[in-house]
Write a structure and sequence with these properties.
Helix content is about 25%, strand content about 25%. It has 17 helices and 48 strands. It has a ten-stranded antiparallel β-sheet with strand order 20-27-28-29-30-39-36-35-32-33. Strands 26-25-31-38-37-34 form a six-stranded antiparallel β-sheet, with no helix packed on it. The longest helix is centred in the middle third of the chain and has 30 residues.
Length: about 1000
């Protein structure tokens, strides 16, 4: 097809719409849905918007399958398929009735099981605005433990289904996070960039809520970015009055115990008059907390409306009997409504709203009840979810680069769909958060594993097409415990390193082997330096009966941007080399060309870190400690559990004051093995060319035979004067300043000096003074804080003996593979830099950790004619630009997201606008059409029209973004993500 013809085809698709493409939206909602479908209100009255809804967890006490089908009702009575069946029947019975639905993962299942007639009926209800989708993601994701790229993906998956199925009427106007346990600023920014007009949530700190109710600030304007020009990340936000439940006394589900409205005066239990009186009192009391003559009431809760007739029959009566009171002077008008209709009335009020610039962490529902434990709960699942995102992004990219043969090739049929859906489910606020039952956590992990298997087939097919090699490929999924049969069992094999980043990487490969000498050659046939070292004793203890390698082969590799390099490995037969072996004791110091680290000669523990480039040195100690988890007492029964962190003392117990140590030194790296106790150890690692100190920690099984639950932390202490300040990331993107015992929007009465100062750490935490910044990067989401000046701590693992009474109904005591407690291993990267240049180091390194190279092994010699090196890009992208998404959209379209990964003021070098030419992006694809979309790719960017809101605070406008030089050459401002649908063809 000629380029001109392709452009015409693209234009036609943009106008008419087709499956996978959003239809060209009218400037206003289509007649009958969205804001056009809202019922009339009465301007002179108090309008009460009743919102029938259900909250359907995508796994929690039961698995997602059990919830959908209604299985295991001995755990919890809940069956989502029956909810949807019943609601549709009741909506058809009365055109005044409304219902909202949220979790697309469940609706997608139900929709696939319906016949043509039911689908047509539901489509009509959607087009009439009587069934309205809100939020629209695959799930209602957690906001503390989720990485922004996974949030965007799960929202895109759900919203695309709604768009494909219902067109513009299926597009949600309102974000709806009624159950997550605290709310991040980055989440609000993402929602704004996705085109949402407003956001409603149910949980906020009890002190914050008390103050907001008093000052009528339950609704506000959230300015969710310090870098993006307003109103790009501004989001109107409302706090719901009752969480997401009905007012007390007005729950009419089969799971409720409130009496129904009994309106026959001849019956002994007639109660219609008292119900009306109570409702009017509730409405007037609620109105005292809000600024307009409109209030919202959520009429529903967890898995309600399985018998929707109960709800609607009573709501019909409530509306009728309350409204009839208008004839005798009542000013209350009750109506069926939706969040978007309520939002429209708030917008019409044309008021100024208070402006919020921080976030809603941490969340507490009482003086001793801080929901900060889940920041770390189930740390192994949190790591597996992060690794799965890494695999998914590589899988998506290789599907594009390898072409159609990626899905059907020599290795079978593969796809990214299973992993994409498993990852979307894993973002649920009772999944990656770690607040589910153990059998549900196992199910989330099982789904991710099945998705990996399908993706590995796709990756193998793609690499086969790109490299022209059909030798079987194997993937080493257990390298963290030195297990990989492909390297252990073969004397000759090749290693392909796929790099999912848009810039070249250098990486140290560690493979378990049984030989003592190996020859490794790069793609050009040049020998590379290798080292053989023994498998560490810590690893041998952890892997138990899995794997039998005695050594590890180490060598450094390089891989081009969005591409691969293949290295050949051969055992040197008869080699008399002896592996480097660790020596007892701790060295005075270790160093490479960038860092020097010293150790205390008496304790064997870290004592200082020096940046040799900047000539900075910081006294720094690191230790491991544990908080004794509260088991409750007579004064306060609150315990530590899956959700809540409540230590029984503000002073943690030191695990030990002296580390038993051994040291391994090779030309490639130096490792210090530190043993703090039989269940806590660490490898301090400094590799050649590395600008961060690597700390590989192993914790578990946590002993509880003493009857004490334990919450294990590592803490870094220094003499830095930090003035009570420290800094954490928000979902892996922008950084927020934290101040100990302080909240920006109310006068905090601190009741938990440790738990009340914990915040989510998704990728990094740091502290700084005028001279130095100490940054710690994490490999998963954890909880962290600075409990005293010059100190940073991160909670690594938790094992508890009591439930915390928030619904999960079991202690957080993960059994592990051997049922004696879970062992967890992870990595921290520590850097010391001047504050002004710190982002130049931690921004790209966080990107490297999130998208690590994907390794595959092929036994034997490389086939003749195999391509050993390949890059999918014509050139590396600028350092400030991250290629966030490359994903096949349909047969000849690719979804691409480009991200400026620096904040405004982050870096003198990189916090500047940068341009990218989309037509010069890919080496194998020609771009013949470009159209920009909203962040979630369910609207054309030029059609995105959001409601505008006025804030009551002055703000300094940023400089406007200059127009793009051309349709294909795009400009990115700091922290900007831009999403494009590219029509492509193979070069």
């Amino acid at each position: 097809m000629a380029a001109g013809a392709a452009s015409v085809l693209l234009l036609l698709l943009l106008v008419t719409g087709t499956r996978g493409f959003p239809a060209r939206s009218p400037r206003h909602d289509p007649p009958g849905c969205g804001y056009q479908s809202c019922p009339a209100t009465r301007p002179s009255m108090l309008n009460v918007h009743l919102v029938p809804h259900t909250h359907d967890d995508v796994g929690w006490l039961k698995t997602v399958d059990q919830y959908y089908y209604g299985a295991r009702n001995d755990i919890q009575h809940a069956g989502v398929q029956y909810i949807l069946d019943s609601v549709i029947e009741q909506l058809l019975a009365d055109p005044r009735r409304r219902f909202i639905y949220v979790e697309t993962a469940f609706f997608y299942r139900w929709w696939r099981q319906q016949g043509a007639q039911m689908r047509a009926t539901v489509t009509q209800l959607v087009q009439q605005g009587r069934l309205e989708f809100v939020n629209g993601g695959w799930c209602m994701n957690d906001e503390a433990s989720t990485h922004y790229s996974a949030i965007i993906d799960q929202m895109t998956l759900g919203l695309r289904f709604l768009n494909d199925t219902f067109g513009p009427c299926g597009r949600p106007r309102v974000a709806w996070h009624i159950d997550p346990f605290g709310h991040s600023r980055e989440q609000a920014s993402l929602f704004a960039q996705m085109g949402f007009d407003g956001f409603f949530f149910g949980r906020l700190d009890y002190q914050d809520k008390r103050r907001r109710m008093k000052d009528k600030e339950m609704e506000l304007l959230w300015r969710a970015s310090e870098s993006l020009q307003p109103p790009g990340a501004d989001l109107f936000t409302g706090v719901l009055p009752n969480g997401y439940n009905p007012p007390a006394g007005f729950c009419w589900d089969q799971s409720c115990s409130d009496p129904p409205i009994q309106d026959d005066p001849q019956l002994e239990d007639y109660n219609a008059d008292i119900v009306v009186k109570n409702f009017l009192d509730v409405a007037h009391n609620q109105a005292e907390m809000y600024k307009t003559n409109h209030i919202i009431m959520t009429m529903g809760s967890d898995f309600q409306y399985e018998n929707a007739n109960l709800w609607y029959k009573n709501l019909d009566k409530l509306i009728r009997y309350v409204n009839v009171q208008q004839s005798v002077g009542s000013n209350v008008n009750v109506l069926y409504s939706t969040p978007s209709c309520y939002l429209q009335e708030l917008h019409r009020a044309n008021l100024s709203w208070s402006v919020k610039r921080d976030d809603f962490f941490p969340y507490a529902d009482g003086a001793y009840n801080f929901w900060t434990g889940y920041f770390t709960s189930r740390p192994a699942l949190k790591r597996y979810e992060r690794l799965s995102n890494n695999v998914l992004q590589a899988c998506n990219q290789l599907e594009v680069l390898g072409g159609p043969s990626s899905r059907k090739g020599p290795y079978g049929d593969g796809d990214s769909d299973a992993l994409r859906e498993a990852m979307a489910v894993a973002q649920h606020h009772d999944a990656v958060s770690g607040t589910e039952k153990q059998h549900v956590a196992n199910d989330y992990a099982r789904r991710l594993a099945m998705g990996w298997a399908r993706c590995q087939v796709l990756v193998s097919n793609s690499l086969s097409a790109l490299s022209r090699s059909v030798t079987p490929r194997f993937y080493c999924e257990n390298l963290n415990i030195s297990v990989c049969p492909a390297s252990e069992n073969n004397s000759q094999f090749s290693v392909t390193i796929y790099n999912p980043l848009a810039r070249s990487v250098s990486w140290t490969v560690r493979l378990p082997v049984n030989g003592t000498g190996y020859r490794v050659t790069d793609p050009r046939g040049q020998a590379v330096d290798t080292q053989v070292v023994p498998v560490s004793p810590f690893t041998r203890a952890v892997r138990r009966d899995r794997g039998y390698a005695v050594n590890e082969l180490l060598f450094q590799v390089g891989a081009p941007p969005l591409g691969f390099s293949t290295y050949s490995v051969s055992l040197l037969l008869g080699s008399r080399r002896h592996p480097h072996t660790p020596r007892p004791g701790t060295p005075p110091s270790i160093q490479n060309e960038f860092l020097k680290v010293t150790f205390d000669p008496h304790t064997g523990m870290l004592s200082s870190i020096s940046n040799l480039e900047t000539k900075q040195t910081l006294e720094l100690s690191q230790g491991f400690y544990w908080y004794n988890a509260s088991s409750g007492n007579e004064d306060s029964p609150q315990t530590s559990g899956a959700y809540i962190f409540r230590p029984n003392s503000s002073t943690p117990f030191a695990l030990c004051h002296r580390a038993r140590a051994r040291t391994l030194q090779t030309p490639l790296l130096t490792e210090v093995y530190q043993e703090f106790s039989p269940w806590v150890s660490q490898v301090v690692r400094l590799s050649r060319g590395q600008r961060q100190l690597e700390l590989e920690w192993t914790v578990g099984p946590i002993p509880v035979e003493d009857g004490l639950g334990k919450e294990v932390i590592t803490r870094f202490d220094s003499p830095m004067n930090t003035s009570g300040l420290f800094y954490t990331d928000s979902n892996g993107r922008e950084i927020l300043e934290r101040r100990r015992d302080f909240r920006p929007t109310w006068d905090l009465k601190q009741t938990e000096p440790v738990a009340g100062n914990y915040y989510p750490v998704n990728t990094r935490i740091y502290m700084k003074d005028k001279q130095s910044q100490l940054t710690v990067l994490t490999d998963r989401s954890l909880g962290g804080s600075s409990i005293r000046d010059g100190s940073l701590e991160l909670m690594l693992h938790r094992r508890l003996l009591y439930d915390d009474f928030r619904g999960v109904g079991e202690p957080l005591s993960e059994p592990g593979d051997y049922y004696d407690g879970l062992v967890v291993r992870g990595k921290l990267l520590v850097s010391l830099t001047p504050p002004g240049t710190a982002a130049d180091t931690h921004r790209p390194e966080a990107e490297r950790q999130a998208l690590q190279p994907l390794l595959s092994l092929q036994p034997g010699e490389s086939e003749t004619g195999t391509l050993l090196e390949f890059s999918g890009l014509q050139a590396e992208l600028p350092p400030a630009v991250h290629l966030l998404t490359v994903s096949q959209w349909d047969s000849d379209s690719v979804l691409v997201r480009l991200e400026h990964q620096f904040e405004k003021g982050d870096s003198q070098t990189h916090s500047q606008p940068v341009t990218v030419d989309l037509q010069k992006l890919f080496s194998t694809l020609e771009v013949v059409g470009v159209s920009e979309m909203s962040l979630a790719a369910n609207q054309w960017k030029e059609d995105m029209r959001r409601l505008d809101w006025r804030g009551d605070a002055e703000w300094e406008p940023l400089h406007g973004r200059p127009g793009d030089p051309s349709a294909a050459v795009v400009r990115l401002q700091p922290m900007e993500i831009r999403t494009f649908l590219l029509r492509v063809r193979l070069r």
